[in-house]
Every structure is written in C-alpha cells, then in structure tokens.
C-alpha cells in the first residue's frame, strides 16, 4: 500500500502502512473486519489522522457525457494524533458497518462489473493521502435474491449493472448513488418492453423495488415502486408477484404513451385549423393579387395536407388502448459506528 504524498514528505525510511481484510463476502447491512498494520521507520513520526473509506466506481452524467470516478460513501475514523516510534509495530483492528444500500458486486457467483473497495486515509507531516482500495465482495440479501430469482424464472436476462450518481425521487434512498440493473425482457413481454431497469434499495426493515420500462420506439417513461419486508419470504409466490409488477408497469407505460399521443393530436389539430385559416386568407389575397397569390394558395394547401396526414397517423392509438386490458396474476437508518460523514443524495426528479 503506497502513500506517495505522505511518505514522500516523511523522507526515506518512513513508516510502512498496510491493511488486511477478511476475505469472506459481505451482504448489505453487514460488517467487514480487518486490521491496519503500522510499522515504524528509521525515526519516530507523528500520525495526525487515520481512517477507512468505502469507495465505489460510479458513473456520472448520461449519454455521451458519462464518465466514472470514485465516490466515498462511508468513512470510519480509526484514530490520529499519536506518535509511531522508530521500528514500532502497531496493529489496529477494525469493524466497519456496510450501509444497507451498498450495491451488489456479484449474483449467483457471477461478477456484475461493479467496483467497490475499502481504503486507508492517512495524514502525517501536513500531507493527506489514500492507499489503494482493497476489493469488497457484496452478495445479495435473501429479499434481493427472491426478486432476482423470480425475474430469472420468468425468463429475464442480465444486460448490465451500473452505479448512477443520482437520487430516485420518491424513495428513501440515502446514498448519493444507486445501482441500476438492466434486464432484457422475457419472451412474453418482448412486444411491449425493450428493457427493464431494476433498483433494489434495502434497509433494516425491508426493501424498495423500483422498476422502469422503456417502451420500444420511445415514449414516456413509467416507474413502478413496491415495498417488501425481510420476513416471510418463503410464504410468497415471487414469480407471480413480480410478473404482476411487470404487467402493471407495462400498462402504466401504455397509458402514458397514449396520453402523449392524444396531446400530440390536439397540437396537430390546432396547427391544421391555423393552416386552413391561412388558406382562406391567401385565397382572398389571390383574388386581389393575381398570379403571385395563386402560388401562395398552393403552398398553404400543402401545409394543411401535411397536418391532416399527421392526424391520420394517430389512428394507431387504438392499438395502445388495447393494452389497457392487460392484467397480472394478483393483485434507512445506518448501523451504528463513528463516522466523519455520511452519504447524502443529490436531487433528481426521478429517472427519465
């Protein structure tokens, strides 16, 4: 573990700092144990600050502006203001609580491509530095496994799992980012949905499930939110319940799209009326102005016909109305521990 700025300021023969973690995977809301090992150098030195940080590689921005950077989402102060004597060996054990909303790094033994880690923050001789993160493996809680397993049985496939630096409006999200799991829909939903985005926000009492469906061909987004508790998981028909969530989401999406279509039809109708009024005015001008006015009439008719053609295309809304008959089958405080700072979400008016 290299602290170039700190050790550089202390000169050659400075202290050595290392960290070891228990290699057992952890679940959201669990704990990670380990120790920081300090080895004194050729002379005594004063350590001003020693802490641990949980860091995640998070995507910021959308579309062509996306980039990834490390975000600190929790911190545990271990000490500071002490002297490490020459050749002294000092081991500092620690237990760090993992926030309930900590993202998953693997499911069923398969890595999701999410990068999490624990790193040491050290200050000495007026310089602050960070060590390289030690990887952290996070597996799902039983309630998360229940939902993910149901999606798998329904035929959904994993596309990607990203961390988004944003807050989902209307949820109890506490961290400044959330995990978005993108899924390819099962065959029975393919004609309605192009992709499903899933976010699982766990807490001490249960979990918020946030679903978003992207209607193929564009249109308004629709969100589905559901709350489940940690208890009684084995008594629920998870495949049937998740299927009802998906079908309700599809119906909501269809309703939003139809509403947008009706709004577009109204705008097109107003434009068409305006075009017809323009034709009447141009016709009057033709009687007074001769050949020049005649050319303007032809142009005005062309605009009006274009508007009428657009209105005719809106007859396809009947297909969307048919979707309204779809029916499905059926119906966070962090753990204790001393911290310098906690995660706080940035405002975002929901997903779009």
From TrEMBL:
Residues 322-352 are annotated as: Disordered. This is SpoOM family protein. It comes from the Bacteria. It comes from Streptomyces iranensis. PANTHER family: SPORULATION-CONTROL PROTEIN SPO0M. Pfam families: Spo0M.
């Amino acid at each position: 573990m290299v602290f170039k700025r700190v050790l550089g300021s202390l000169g050659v023969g400075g202290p050595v700092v290392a960290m070891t973690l228990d290699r057992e995977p952890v679940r959201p809301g669990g704990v990670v144990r380990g120790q920081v090992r300090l080895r004194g150098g050729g002379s005594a030195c004063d350590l001003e600050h020693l802490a641990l940080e949980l860091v995640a590689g998070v995507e910021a921005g959308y579309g062509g502006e996306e980039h990834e950077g490390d975000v600190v989402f929790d911190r545990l102060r271990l000490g500071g203001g002490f002297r490490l004597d020459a050749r002294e060996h000092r081991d500092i054990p620690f237990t760090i609580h993992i926030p309930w909303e900590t993202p998953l790094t693997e499911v069923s033994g398969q890595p999701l491509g999410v990068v999490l880690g624990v790193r040491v923050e050290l200050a000495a001789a007026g310089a602050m530095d960070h060590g390289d993160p030690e990887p952290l493996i996070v597996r799902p809680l039983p309630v998360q496994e229940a939902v993910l397993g149901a999606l798998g049985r329904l035929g959904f496939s994993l596309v990607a799992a990203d961390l988004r630096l944003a807050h989902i409006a209307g949820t109890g999200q506490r961290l400044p980012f959330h995990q978005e799991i993108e899924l390819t829909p099962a065959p029975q939903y393919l004609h309605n949905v192009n992709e499903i985005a899933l976010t699982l926000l766990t807490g001490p009492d249960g979990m918020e499930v946030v679903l978003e469906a992207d209607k193929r061909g564009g249109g308004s987004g629709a969100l589905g939110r559901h709350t489940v508790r940690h208890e009684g998981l084995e008594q629920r028909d998870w495949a049937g319940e998740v299927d009802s969530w998906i079908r309700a989401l599809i119906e909501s999406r269809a309703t939003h799209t139809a509403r947008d279509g009706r709004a577009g039809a109204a705008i097109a109708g107003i434009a068409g009326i305006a075009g017809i009024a323009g034709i009447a005015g141009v016709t009057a001008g033709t009687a007074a102005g001769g050949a020049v006015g005649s050319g303007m009439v032809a142009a005005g008719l062309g605009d009006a016909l274009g508007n009428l053609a657009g209105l005719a295309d809106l007859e396809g809304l009947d297909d969307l109305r048919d979707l309204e008959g779809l029916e499905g089958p059926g119906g966070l405080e962090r753990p204790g521990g001393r911290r310098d700072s906690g995660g706080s979400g940035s405002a975002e008016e929901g997903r779009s």
